[in-house]
């Protein structure tokens, strides 16, 4: 019965610990909801969006509201879940909305062989600004609109490139 | 005094607001990471689901595999959430009849990487991958586990029932 008495002594501490944990949990929930549904910072890297985004990596602020209200338009830089690898997010520019007709060069290095395509309903056409080093809709086809998860707002790092993205 | 009435009213409002925010956060985390309810209707999943409507519970924990009934965002219309069965995973070879009423001509497609092939259990009246192509994994919202309503059919949703 002595262990019951020990437990009783720890009851006060346990209650306080639980309260502190619940405060932390509530704070984390708030951060999570903001990060997922309102605005978040993302580290993007790679050559596919040169010269708009740097090769070695930028931190950009992306908002997650526009795509829920259909306010994604031509020329927007968006964060999209990759259709070929669902664990990866890619950052590309929207060059075509549903119903648009697009012409692109199947192999930009060779220069010829232009292909024309109409973006189907419910899809968008995404392309990297650096046509020579980008895997995008020219490779995996138009992407369903629902895969868009955010719209890039501005770049916050490196500091000398701070500002809106165009 | 009038000012203390407004003070108390303000405090009550803040307390209620914080409480609502906590409940909402909890519901949100549960619905987005554990399980969520979905309303499925239409003839495409007969006999597994009723055409007149079912409320099902879908879970977001497991990765979808062959034979699972999944809820996903339609590649045709981002506002729709169809419910269909996963018939092929990436790399699988799927054969399907192009026009089930008209002729017997069939096509075979290899499901590309990062996609799944979904089909309704009632092939004759189902808008699925045979029409809009393979669905990227990123569009899948959850795997259907259990039917909650109508109550007389409360129970698990499992493999297709062979008639």
UniProtKB/TrEMBL annotation, chain A:
Instruction: Name the domain of life this protein comes from.
Output: Eukaryota
Which cell locations does it reside in?
Mitochondrion inner membrane
Entry GO terms, CC = mitochondrial inner membrane peptidase complex
Any idea what this protein is called?
A: Peptidase S26 domain-containing protein
- Which Gene Ontology MF annotations are present? serine-type endopeptidase activity
Which protein family is it in?
Belongs to the peptidase S26 family. IMP1 subfamily.
Cross-referenced InterPro entries, in alphabetical order?
LexA/Signal_pep-like_sf, Mito_IMP1_subunit, Pept_S26A_signal_pept_1, Pept_S26A_signal_pept_1_CS, Peptidase_S26
Alphabetical UniProt keywords: Hydrolase, Membrane, Mitochondrion, Mitochondrion inner membrane
How is this protein organized at the quaternary level? Heterodimer of 2 subunits, IMP1A/B and IMP12.
Keyword Mitochondrion listed? The answer is yes
Q: Which organism is it from?
A: Brassica campestris (Field mustard)
Q: Which GO terms describe its biological process?
A: protein processing involved in protein targeting to mitochondrion; signal peptide processing
Q: What is its main location?
A: mitochondrion
Q: What is its biological role? A: Catalyzes the removal of transit peptides required for the targeting of proteins from the mitochondrial matrix, across the inner membrane, into the inter-membrane space.
**What range(s) does the Peptidase S26 domain occupy?**
20-113, 118-157
Entry annotation: catalytic residues: 48, 92
From TrEMBL, chain B:
| Keyword Hydrolase tagged | yes
Q: Which GO terms describe its molecular function?
A: serine-type endopeptidase activity
A Pfam family annotated for this UniProt entry: Peptidase_S26
Q: Does the keyword Membrane feature in the UniProt annotation?
A: yes
A cellular component term, taken from the record's GO annotations: mitochondrial inner membrane
**Gene Ontology terms describing biological process:** signal peptide processing
Instruction: Please list the residue ranges annotated as the Peptidase S26 domain.
Output: 24-96, 107-149
Q: How does it assemble?
A: Heterodimer of 2 subunits, IMP1A/B and IMP12.
In Swiss-Prot or TrEMBL terms, this protein is called Peptidase S26 domain-containing protein
């Amino acid at each position: 019965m002595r262990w019951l008495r020990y437990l009783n002594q720890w009851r006060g501490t346990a209650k306080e610990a639980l309260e502190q944990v619940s405060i932390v949990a509530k704070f984390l929930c708030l951060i999570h909801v903001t990060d997922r549904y309102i605005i978040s910072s993302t580290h993007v890297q790679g050559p596919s969006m040169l010269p708009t985004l740097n090769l070695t990596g930028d931190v950009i602020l992306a908002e997650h509201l526009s795509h829920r209200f259909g306010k994604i338009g031509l020329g927007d830089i968006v964060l999209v879940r990759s259709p070929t690898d669902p664990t990866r997010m890619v950052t590309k520019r929207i060059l075509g909305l549903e119903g648009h007709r697009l012409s692109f060069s199947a192999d930009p290095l060779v220069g010829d062989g232009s292909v024309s395509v109409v973006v189907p309903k419910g899809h968008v056409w995404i392309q990297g600004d650096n046509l020579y080093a980008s895997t995008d809709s020219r490779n995996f086809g138009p992407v369903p609109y629902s895969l868009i998860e955010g719209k890039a707002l501005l770049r916050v790092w490196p500091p000398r490139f701070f500002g809106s993205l165009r | 005094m009038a000012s203390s009435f407004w003070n108390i009213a303000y405090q009550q409002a803040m307390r209620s607001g914080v409480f609502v925010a906590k409940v909402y956060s909890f519901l949100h985390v549960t619905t987005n990471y554990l399980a969520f309810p979905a309303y499925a209707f239409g003839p495409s999943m007969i006999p597994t689901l009723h055409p007149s409507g079912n409320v099902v519970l879908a879970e977001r924990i497991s990765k979808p595999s062959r034979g699972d009934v999944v809820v996903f965002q339609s590649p045709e219309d981002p506002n729709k959430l169809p419910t269909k069965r996963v018939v092929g995973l990436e790399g699988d070879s799927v054969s399907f009849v192009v026009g089930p009423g008209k002729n017997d001509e069939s096509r075979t497609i290899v499901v590309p990487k990062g996609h799944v092939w979904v089909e309704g259990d009632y092939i004759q009246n189902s808008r699925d991958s045979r029409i809009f192509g393979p669905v990227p994994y990123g569009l899948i919202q959850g795997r259907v586990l259990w039917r909650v309503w109508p109550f007389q059919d409360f129970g698990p949703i499992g493999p297709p029932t062979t008639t």
